[in-house]
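Re-running the complex after MR caught last week's input typo. The corrected sequence lines follow. Everything else is unchanged.
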Amino acid sequence: MSMTGVCLKQVTGCVSRRILSVTRRHHLAIQPNRCLFFESDFKSGYSSKKLKRPTLAGLKEEVKDLGPELGKLKQEWIRKMRCDEVWDQQHGDYEVVWRFNDKDTINSWIVTRDHDHDEGNSKAEFTLGANKKGIFRGVLDTNVPKDGIIKESGFCNISSQRHKKSFKRDDPYNWERYTHLLLRVRGDGRTYQVVIGMHRYYDLTWNDQYTYPLFTRGGPYWQTAKIPFSKFYLAAKGRIQDKQEKMQLDRISYVGITLADAYNGPFNLEVDYIGLYYDSNHSQDFAYEMYQVPSYMIY
Amino acid sequence: MTVFTPATPLFISTLILSTLLAISASHWLLLWLSLELNLLSFIPIIMISKSLQETEGAIKYFMAQALGSALILLGALMIFNPFISPQISIIPIILGAMNKLGLAPCHFWFPNVMASISWFSCLILTTWQKIIPLMILIFLPLTHITPFLMITGALSSLIGGIGGMNQTSLRPLLAYSSIGHLGWMICTSAISSSMAIIYFCSYILVILPIMLLLMSKNIFSNIQLFSTFKSKHSFQLSAATLFMSLGGLPPLFGFFPKWMAIQAMSMSHMLFLPLTLILGALMNLYFYLNLSFPMLINLLNPSFMKKKESITLASISSLILGVSPICLFLIYALTMFN
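Corrected-run output:
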């Protein structure tokens, strides 16, 4: 849902990039606080270019999809009425959500680089390695394109697709049963960022992501990173938010791994699987800013 | 987590006053005013802890309730129009009241909002906030719309049962249960308004201890329910009893309002309606038993069996919680039927 908004000058006096970029291709909104400006586009101006197809052809395609989508809907209702969700959890229970041992899983993940939208020169790819593991590799380039708009560059990312149910409706993951995110990776010593995107309703919160650094060792040995969900901190468009809140584990939209550590050079990250883990001894709710603010303070 | 601020008593007092004003209102505009006051008093209570989730819930609640209030105002203004038949002008009022209650088919906002707000707000939403729209539906002369209300009641019971299936989060589960129970109240109101009020009061008596128990332990999902209560055996029996009572399992208290409703409908020669209501209630009972069985099975744990004193105390307290309001009900039933 979009709120009506007006472009205003930022409190600090700096003119927002959004005003400058109205006539440009992209909306580069450098916003320290996600509550300052409304979002007109779900993708924040980074939508992929789609060819306009004739209405009749589009309609024919939608009718073709009707059968499979109805089949999906039927499966959803069968699953719902079976009522066979796991209701109890034991210490050490885990679930592998993505195992990167086949091309289908690899191809279902989306690779993004700053070069895609002419904002940099980084290269990245996500492929299946010889040992049947996913390899996220490329070259990070922090050289800024000389267009007078971009100030910083050097960004590569792999993300899962948003989980959808029948008729392309969003179906966020529900990971309330688990306490940790598990990643089995073999890195190159660089610091990556694990990003968990949230499925939120209002436009101001469309870009909400929870992130945590993934420190890799660089050696020949694999490492299993077990990151508690309570340690993830809230960011929006890459900026850590002042007002931190606990992650809603029943509204997870996608998971991604980002490299933007501001070092030029090649990178290589092997990923075996990404999963979930339940630790009954983990009692932390949220690691940041749990102090009570006086009620007269508005923030 | 609910944080009580100095403004909380103000909003709670206006919330109470608005309901009392609505009940004693003699003019449609006064009723609408009290509905608006009720809405505006409840929104800050929802947003009291200023978390994003609760803010989202508050905005969704506002949108749904504003639509309901607008429909009621439209109906109220239409009543004053001499060119419009009162039977037509009452339709927007009914639709507005249905929207405000979360009665099917206007129920879509209800589980969504319940999933976002704190337990304290859930408690007010499922009990106090239902008083005004329920009174509108019960006390209006609706003889020409009774079949429509019965259909919506039956639909609510079915939707309450189906919607609660496969729910792992407790707040939406109780929201669907509330929709189901509302269906029973609406169908009962077609026979007798006092019976509908008894059902409503019985529902409050059953839902109140459940929500207070879950609120005290900060439990939002079934996983938390089982893991928290594993060490607190004394709560397991109480929680299991209360959930079974809410599901309408005899001989617990929650069964008696349903029995009263079915008997009244059977005596009015209605067959299909109670059948539909029972179907919805059975689905409700299924997921309540799903919640209760693991807790009851856990009570058979040998380490728990050793603690004889706590068993006695827990069992007595649970029985009191589940069974004692029957005495009130029996007294009332005796006075009514004599």
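None of the earlier attempt is carried over here. Residues 52-79 of chain B form the longest helix (28 residues). Chain B has 17 helices and no strands.
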